[in-house]
Amino acid sequence: MKHLPFEDWLLLGESALTPSQHRALAEHLQECLQCQMLQMGLGEVEDLFRESGLHDPAPGFVERWQARAQQDRLVRQQWRYRWQVGIMLIVILNAVVGLAVFLGGQLFSVFDSWVDVVALAVYRIFALFFALGEMRGLFAVIWRILGGLVPPERWALLFLALGLGSLLWVGWLAHLIKLPRRVGS
Ligand SMILES: [Zn+2]
Fold this sequence. Notes:
Blueprint: H1 4-12, H2 19-31, H3 33-52, H4 61-112, H5 114-149, H6 152-184
Helix pairs in contact: 1-3, 4-5, 4-6
Bound molecules: zinc ion.
């Protein structure tokens, strides 16, 4: 037995049918158990919706909701973008100020005398090497302590996670930097 037009008609609802379709459906239902079951099931579902007080959303609700969600997402992304740019600016500003102070100090000493400058440079280089050596020693100590606590395979996992994390962050940042241009166009 063919059910195809009748199943579709049942799903459409009887109000959507022409009188001749209505008659044909009624005739088919009298002799088809499968379509009777479908009709009954659909009726139960409709009752359930009526009883639960669920209504169809107001016209345009889905579109409004999507527009609203899209707008929210944009505002959040722009806010995060500004926040990250702000942090980057602070870091860059710190570096610039630090460099300016460092270079400014050197520039002043240039006017004093060449001997002082050379002595200062040599002293700085030695100090730098000393500090690096100290730091290396410090790192070695930390490394030994942490290395004893964390097994080697965990370290590999940690570095992998760190690498992936920074990669994701860079990608995210690149995406955010591209975003305002795309929205603006
Ligand atoms: Zn049928």
